[in-house]
Every structure is written in structure tokens, then in C-alpha cells.
Amino acid sequence: MAGNELALRIEGLRKSFGDVQAVDGLDLGAGRGECLGLLGPNGAGKTTTIEICEGLTAPDAGVVELLGLEWNRSAHELRQRIGIQLQETQFTDKLTVEETVRLFCSFYHRGMPVDQLIALVQLEEKRKARVGGLSGGQKQRLAMALALAGDPELVFLDEPTTGLDPQARRHLWELVEELKRTGRTIILTTHYMEEAERLCDRVAIMDRGRKIAEGTPKELIALAGGEEIVELGASRTANVPRLVAKLKAIDGVREHTELGGVHRLAVGELHRTTPRIFAVLEEEGVHLSEFRTHSATLEDVFVKLTGRNLRDE
Amino acid sequence: MSKLSEFLDRSSLFQLTWTRFRLILREPEAIFWVFVFPILLAGGLGIAFRNRPADVLPVGATTPQMVQILNAGGELKAQAVSEAEGPHALATGRVVLMAVAEPSGVRYDFDETNPDGRAARRAADHALQTAAGRRDPVVSHDRLVHEVGARYIDFVVPGLLGMNLMGSAMWGLGFSIVDMRQKKLLKRMVASPMPRWEFLASFLISRLAMLVLEVAALLGFAWLAFGVPFRGSFWQLAALCVLTSIAFSALGLLVASRARTLEAVSGLMNLAMFPMWILSGVFFSASRFPAFIQPLVRALPLTAAIEALRGNMLEGLGLGRMMGQVGILLLWCAVPFALSLKIFRWR
Q1: Distance from B301 to chain A by nearest Cα, in Å?
Q2: Domain limits for position B70
């Protein structure tokens, strides 16, 4: 097999459930050893896409190729070579961590040793504990261990950190980074932009079954129109259209969007632009209800592309 | 030794089956329903329906003379009850018969559908007529015979065994599978390279192993406590238990093949089992139902199973003489299994 082929290739993928077009003509590719993130709000079609890739859902149309293989011809081999973590799987409460890992390892021809897997996800202390007694983060790490049971070349992680507290999330990120170091290809869905920024080499932003942007996190952030974002909430008494016109006219402001009374400005150089913004606010007699600045994130890209927040749905 | 344990660690069929055992053993309620409950039921029924040394039937009479005459025979226990109290005493079961003195003789009040009432009527009339001077023209006497195998407990143990095999096979398979489906664990497992036939086989293997313990517990108890007879071939009895269990496992699989929630599968399970609890002759003979529903009653797997178990245990019949029942059970293995493989929802 050629070493430089794509680990994942999707072309013209479509899938509908009844009237709902879940995936609407998606093209996607991931190179070997790459971590590709699918970022988008709930209902964007991320899970449907990933479940088609995992061979759990049949597509209506399109090409899906994993490691150069297709599901209808090489399902057996693919199952052995990929690793999967699904959203909201509940493992059997009354089995222990070790028993669960051992069970899944037995499904693979060349599985990883049970001890090594448990050590990798740092559950050594819990190996004799029942799954029912694990915390959310520990359960998610167990799910990761099971995804890795077959020492896979390609790993699918569907919202691996949803519902976890920040510490457990960082813990899981370290684990994903460890997987990247061992050269595995990782396909990850998330609706946390910071997760995508930290873990993914490349991100495809999805909305309503389509890919609306793709690139490295840096490239995408550049798309947002600037490196810095200023958000300000103006009191209702202000003359909004004139305020917007004046804000847009400021030298250094590249983009303006308004979402729920909050004006979001993409600016190049914060230290030059901010005083000018304050001058405009002063002129217009605006009372600020909030004022924030932050470096542009993928969330800002999404807002710019769709006019909606990632987590508005 | 370590070679074996390494082999077992890597054998998915072994791991899947062993997981089933672990889960059964970690579910104390299941142990109760499978092992303790049938024994309690058999014990309770055995005691309630034990053959007592001739029942003494309570009767009421309106005059002291009649009370005295009726008490003299030993078959009846008579008490004075006024005619006005009579209906209430009958209704509450305090007496099964009222003997009411009338100017022309005696009137008996009783429920003719109650065998005890009819027996009391015969005994009371005999006692009163004899006391009044009747002589029987034929001399008769009794020799008492107690046949093991004809008691109610003998009849009911094969019924309970059949019912237990049905319940544990259907719940054991159906509930666990739907539980796994509801938790999305089934989906996760088919996303792995686990061979699907091994998944189903693990249920069947663990079921058959549990069957040995289950059957041994119930029949051992019935044998030790009540001396229930085993007249047929032991191996054929074992084969019948296995066949019954496989048939109900197939039915359990079918019931569980689409349901997404435990509530749904519980409803379907009860829907499937309820007609059999009533119709299949667990507690009384299925032949009591009217002739026009007999074909339906006979076609039910539990009817076939219980008839065959009774044939083996009570009458000592060989399988060759019960091909009808065996054939019905085989059909109930094949059809639901084939059907459920077609419609099974793996996710």
C-alpha cells in the first residue's frame, strides 16, 4: 500500500433522514498522521458524517475511503484497523475497567496489551473499580482506551470532551496529543473552538450538512478578518445605525457584526484602534454595558461565516 | 497454564460468554427470580395442595339432633347454625353445607359447583338416612391407595419447570440486549470487529450453562421435598430442557430485536408470555379449554414443552412418542431465530 495516500477521503457525501438533509455534498480529506477537526454547532451533520466513516450508517451518495479501503468491500479489515469512540456510549456499570478493556481487546487480532492501554489512559488506580463508579472524565478515558484497543491507524473521536469539567477536558486533550505523537490519524468532532484550536492540524467548519470553511486554525482565524476581536455592548438610547457607520469608518476596524445588541469588531492593532473606538463611543454618548477584547478564535470565524454563534442552536 | 489463560484472554467468544456470567452473578435479583422463586412457588403449592388424610368438611345444621348425627361419622364437622345465619355461613366458607330441618324432612343448602359441597351433601344424607333406619343392600368396604405421580405437586412441577425455562430465557436474552441497545453499547460493539454470531452465541452458551443449575435446583428440590417422580429417561429430560430453553431464547431474541427501551421490551415480553401463562397448562391441564381454541393452545411453545416434560417425568414416555411436541418446539426455535436475524436492530 502506498504510504502517502490519504487516511480519509470523502467526496460528494450525502445523507438524509426523512426530510432532513443531514449531510449535503461534503468533500473532506485527512492525510496520514493528521488530526482533522470537524467543528460546528449541534445538528451541523458532524456525527452523521463520522458515523458514515465508521461504517455504522450507509450514505445515500458519495465516496468514503479509509486507509485506501471502502466499507462495502473491506469492512472486516477496516474494523480491525480503525478505532472508534462514540457519543454517549454507556459501558456496563457492573463490569470493572479491566474486564471491559479485556473484552474489547479480545475483538482485535493484534490488540494492545490490556495493561498498556490502562496505563495509557491513566486508569491504573481504577482498574479493579466498577465502571458505574467512575467519574465522567474517567468514563471518557475508558472509552478512549477501548477506541485504542486494536492499536488503530485511524481514530474517530465524536465529541470526546462534551460534558466534562475543564480539568477532565485538559486531561483528555493531553491524551489526544499523546495519540498524535504516536503517528495516528485522528478525526475529531467538537463544538468547542478551543479544543479544535489546540488539537487539530486542520479544521473543517460545518454548518447544515455542508463544509463552510477549511484550513489550519491559523488560516481560518485570519479569515475572521483580524487577529483581535473587540466586543462591546451599547445602551439602547444610542443611535445605532450612526454608531455602526462610525465604528466601521474607524481606521483599523476590518469587520463589524452585530449579534444580540453586542457589536463585534475585528481589528488589526488593538493598541491603536481601541482609543479610536472609545472616542466614537464618547461622541455618540454611548453607555457601555460590556467591553471585551480577545484574540480571534474559530468561534469568531463561525460567527462571521454564518451570522450565528456556535452554541446558539 | 499461562498459555491457556493467554488464549482465553484473546478469545472473544470466551470473553463475551464470561462477561455474561459475571453480569448474571452480579445481579442478585436475577438469582432470586431464577433460583429461589420457583422453589418457593413449588414449596408453597406442594404444601397448599398436599393430599390431606381425608378432609373433614365443615357443615351446619339447624337442630341439635342433626348436629350430633352428622358429627358421629367422622367425615363431617357439624355445628349448630340457625336457618337465618345459614346463607352468611355458606358465603364466608364457614360451612360448605347447611342441613335445614323441615316439616317434611331435611333440606340441603350448598353450592353444587363446589366439590366439597357435593361431598358433604352425600356424607350428610348418608348419615341422616342411616340414623333414620336406612340399610344398604350391598356390603362394601374401602382399601386406600396413594399413587405417587398423581398428586397435584407431581402435576405442577413440570409446569413450573416449563414456566421457569420460558421466563429465564426470555428475560435473560431480551432484557440484556435491549439494555445494551438503550445504552448505545450495542452500537459501540458492532462498531468493533466483534463477530456478531459470537455475540449471540455468548448469550446462548451462558443460558445453557445457567439452565443446568436452574433445572437441578428446581427438580432437586421437588424430588427431595415431595418425592416427585422421574419415570422417563434422564438424558431425554435434559434434551427437552435444552430444546425448550433454545426455543424461548429465540423468542426472547425476536421480542428484543427492535425495541429501543426497556419499557418497550417489558411490554412486548409480557404480551408474548401472558397467553402462555394462562393457556399452556402450568397450573391446570390445558385440555380444560374449549375445543375450538385447542389448536392454538397446542401450538404454543410452552404447552408443547410442559406436555413433553410431563410425558417424560410422570408417564415415562420416550421422545419418539412425543414427536408432535418436539416438532412444535423445533419450529419455535427456527422461525423466531430466522426472523430476528432479519429484523435485528444492531444500533
Answers
A1: 33
A2: 57-131
